[in-house]
Amino acid sequence: MDQNAASMASCLQEVENEMRVIRQQLQSQHQKIQYYCQQIQDRDRQTRPSAFLEHVDNCHSMLYSKLSVEPNPELRSKGTTTAIHDKARPVIVKQWIGFPEKQTALFDEISNAFSTDHRVFLRE
């Protein structure tokens, strides 16, 4: 009987070891699934159309993130200016009186035309 009990104990130990390995594999698979789900959600968020205000914010960020001015005059370009002969250009630059008010009114009108959940602007 002692030999039978030892055999059963050994068998039980093997089963417990196998269960531990299976639990670890399940945990690893669960972590992979969570990772891939997060990747899908991130990609969806990046590729789904944006609402108007998000679109304006994205454009602003994209345009202004590329602008920079070298603060050190010694490192600035020493080249010549662009030749303007035979190029379209304004002769006189004037202040556009009322522009800020007109811009605000137009922006408000466009903003009101698109609800916040109306996603029609494609991202690049």
UniProtKB/TrEMBL annotation:
Superkingdom of origin: Eukaryota
The protein's name in its UniProt record: Uncharacterized protein
